[in-house]
């Protein structure tokens, strides 16, 4: 089950001395051991010859300390025979199991292969098309095993092998289905902490553990789906979704943190977004929110590269609601000792983190600030309440009467009617009656289109009329109409973008709507266009340039492309500084967004400096956004935990000032 590509280290014998392995040269049952080729936490792997037919085989000899307390070898053999009977081209099954001299020996046929782990160590990551081919086959292996009620429990790149078959496509097999769990279940030593520590294979590798494994809960196929989601994420990005400083911190992240966006290449759309959705569903914390079978996941993987948008939206399981499985009653299996050990460790870790969070953040937590959503940092505030306008009722009635008279005397296809419509629209704009403004702006568009078709001029360009519809619809919350009208306005103004205020506002609307709808790739395209316009006239319109850089940067932040996010935030902040660093809400938001990016890149000292500057700026603003104030203060203390922990502790005993300093109470 190996090739000349693999590298192996000289191993110690059972007494701990470097030298010839004790099994090499011996005959186990009717297998003559020739060479040791690998060793892991569960077993040592040897190349051997079957003396009955002189064929080469691979022996996996389970470590003695793992089976020393097995009481019922017959039951163990029965369970292993179930694995042997698995028949699927994508599962590396065992040919036989041998019990000799107190040893459990699993017999396999040899393969020439490269593991996915080895491949990723050389290439960093793989492309989407190759990933689809590999992981559909892994799903097929999982599906076959599930029919026999077998859960892998340890899916990871080293257990996924690519056969060296000289084909242009990958042939995949999955190793070690269920064996570690069987050994653990039948071994008293498997219930001990020592067993858990010495063979992480038995309980799954920390980088790929499901939340329920971390919590010591019962697992099923959906736990394997979570682990496979971790492997897919790593294969496409080069990094696992959750990496802590140690096993417990990694487990805590699996249970509580959301993975960073994968940040796949924008040029691969819609494949990038589809992979984001699929992996996100695999990594759902609640098993009921994941794919419920390997077949569902394989089906979506098969659609990713080729499906049309409508086929994807209507067919993919990723968007379908699932029916939660029934929970087991009291008759279910009791939690094992090793599960209790894991649970206790996680509880202790959570308690420590919770205590420090309370201890350090208590001063800020005691202040009542409105909640703040970082993903809405640059979004326009919700619909405002209507603004009082003097004598509004009489003005509205008078304008509507004028419209009726013109329609009666001259019809609607005339400049006079269009002018009267514009007056009414402007009244609704002034008092922020957005639904009425949208309704009459649409009428203005219709009339202006007819006038231009007849060779007459309207009260303004048609692009401006569509802009009015777009803005009114946007403020009224009618985002579909807002997008349609904004796109139409931009099309009509094509070639006049440099100084065209209508185009700038429509791009703002489009970017804002796409950001709200989490269509970040589309938002990035819009803000790229806005940035290009703003960059041409930044000397005359620096505020538009600041805005464009910040919105473009923040979309990159949400996409997980922190390098580009940092670059664009820097562009805007440098331009702001070169224009006298005026005190405005844009700078307060930009410094906060910039700090979020720096913290995501683990540049905590730079983030601390940005937040200090932000706190000082906020103090000078006449009416700062209290939600932003609370967010900046919280982020500042959290950042100090990484860059200046003494300062964080000081914040507990002193009052955190808006300039980023602390003073005694």
How does this structure look, described?
This protein has 27 helices and eleven strands. It is of the alpha+beta class. Among the domains are: 27-108, Phosphorylase Kinase, domain 1 (2-Layer Sandwich), CATH 3.30.200; 113-319 and 334-354, Transferase(Phosphotransferase), domain 1 (Orthogonal Bundle). The strands form three sheets. The chain has a six-stranded antiparallel beta sheet with strand order 1-2-3-4-6-5. A three-stranded antiparallel beta sheet has the order 7-8-9. Strand 3 and strand 4 (55-62) form a beta hairpin. Helix 14 (337-365) crosses helix 27 (645-653). Mean pLDDT is 81; it is low at 1-20, 189-203, 327-334, 357-366 and 657-665.
CATH architecture annotation name of the domain at 113-319 and 334-354: Orthogonal Bundle
Category by helix and strand content: alpha+beta
CATH homologous superfamily caption of the domain at 113-319 and 334-354: Transferase(Phosphotransferase) domain 1
Mean pLDDT: 81
Low-confidence stretches: 1-20, 189-203, 327-334, 357-366, 657-665
Give the strand line-up of the largest sheet.
Answer: 1-2-3-4-6-5
Q: What gap, in angstroms, lies between the N and C termini? A: 69 Å
CATH topology of the domain at 113-319 and 334-354: Transferase(Phosphotransferase), domain 1
- Radius of gyration from the CA trace? 32 Å
Largest beta-sheet details? 6 strands, antiparallel
Classified by CATH, the class of the domain at 113-319 and 334-354 is Mainly Alpha
Shape: elongated
Q: Count of helices? A: 27
By DSSP, the count of extended strands is 11
Question: Roughly what percent helix?
Answer: 40-55%
How much β-strand is present in the residues? 5-15%
């Amino acid at each position: 089950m190996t090739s000349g590509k693999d590298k192996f280290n000289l191993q110690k014998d059972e007494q701990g001395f470097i030298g010839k392995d004790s099994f090499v040269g011996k005959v186990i049952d009717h297998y003559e051991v020739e060479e040791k080729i690998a060793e892991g936490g569960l077993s040592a792997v040897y190349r051997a010859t079957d003396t009955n037919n002189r064929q080469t085989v691979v022996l996996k000899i389970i470590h003695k300390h793992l089976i020393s307390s097995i009481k019922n070898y017959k039951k163990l053999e029965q369970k292993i025979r179930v694995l042997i009977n698995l028949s699927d081209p994508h599962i590396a099954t065992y040919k036989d199991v041998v019990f000799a001299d107190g040893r459990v020996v699993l017999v396999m046929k040899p393969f020439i292969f490269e593991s996915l782990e080895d491949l990723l160590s050389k290439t960093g990551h793989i492309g989407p098309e190759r990933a689809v081919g590999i992981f559909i086959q892994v799903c097929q292996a999982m599906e076959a095993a599930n029919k026999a009620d077998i859960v892998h429990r340890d899916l990871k790149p080293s257990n996924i092998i690519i056969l060296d078959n000289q084909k242009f496509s990958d042939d995949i097999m999955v190793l070690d289905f269920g064996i570690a769990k069987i050994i653990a279940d039948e071994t008293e030593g498997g219930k001990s902490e020592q067993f858990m520590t010495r063979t992480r294979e038995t309980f799954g590798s920390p980088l790929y553990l499901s939340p329920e494994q971390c919590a010591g809960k019962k697992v099923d196929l959906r736990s394997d789906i979570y682990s496979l989601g971790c492997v897919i994420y790593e294969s496409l990005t080069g990094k696992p979704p959750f990496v802590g400083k140690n096993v417990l911190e990694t487990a805590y992240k699996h249970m509580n943190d959301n993975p960073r966006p994968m940040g796949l290449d924008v040029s691969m759309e819609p494949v990038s977004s589809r992979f984001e959705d699929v992996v996100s569903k695999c990594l759902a914390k609640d098993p009921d929110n994941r794919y419920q079978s390997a077949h569902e996941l394989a089906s979506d993987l098969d659609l990713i590269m080729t499906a049309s948008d409508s086929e994807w939206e209507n067919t993919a399981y990723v968007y379908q609601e699932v029916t939660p499985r029934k929970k087991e009653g009291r008759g279910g299996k009791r939690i094992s000792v090793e599960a209790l050990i894991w649970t206790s460790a996680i509880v202790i870790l959570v308690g420590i983190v919770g205590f420090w969070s309370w201890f350090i953040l208590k001063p800020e937590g005691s202040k009542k600030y409105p909640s703040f959503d970082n993903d809405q940092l640059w979004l326009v505030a919700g619909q405002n309440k209507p603004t009082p306008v003097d004598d509004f009722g009489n003005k509205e009635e008078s304008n509507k009467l004028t419209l009726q008279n013109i329609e009666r005397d001259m019809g609607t296809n005339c400049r006079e009617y269009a002018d009267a419509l514009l007056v009414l629209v402007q009244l609704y704009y002034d008092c922020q009656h957005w639904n009425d403004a949208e309704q009459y702006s649409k009428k203005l568009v219709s009339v202006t289109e007819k006038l231009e078709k007849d060779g007459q001029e309207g009260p303004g360009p048609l692009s401006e009329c569509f802009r009015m519809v777009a803005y009114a619809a946007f403020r009224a919350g009618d985002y579909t109409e807002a997008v349609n009208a904004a796109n139409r306005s931009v099309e009509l103004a094509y070639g006049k973008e440099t100084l065209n205020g209508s185009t700038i506002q429509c791009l703002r609307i489009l970017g804002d709507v796409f950001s709200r709808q989490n269509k970040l790739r589309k938002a990035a395209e819009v803000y790229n266009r806005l940035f290009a316009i703003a960059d041409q006239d930044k000397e005359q319109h620096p505020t538009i340039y600041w805005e464009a850089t910040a919105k473009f940067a923040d979309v990159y932040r949400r996409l997980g492309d922190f390098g580009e996010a940092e670059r664009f935030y820097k562009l805007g902040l440098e331009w702001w500084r070169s224009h006298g660093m005026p005190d405005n809400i844009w700078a307060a938001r930009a410094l906060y967004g910039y700090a979020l990016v720096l913290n995501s890149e683990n540049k905590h000292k730079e983030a601390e400096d940005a937040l200090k500057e932000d706190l000082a700026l906020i103090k000078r603003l006449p009416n700062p956004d209290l939600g932003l104030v609370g967010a900046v203060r919280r982020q500042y203390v959290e950042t100090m935990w990484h860059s200046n922990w003494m300062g964080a502790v000081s914040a507990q005993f002193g009052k955190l000032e808006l300039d980023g300093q602390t003073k005694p109470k």
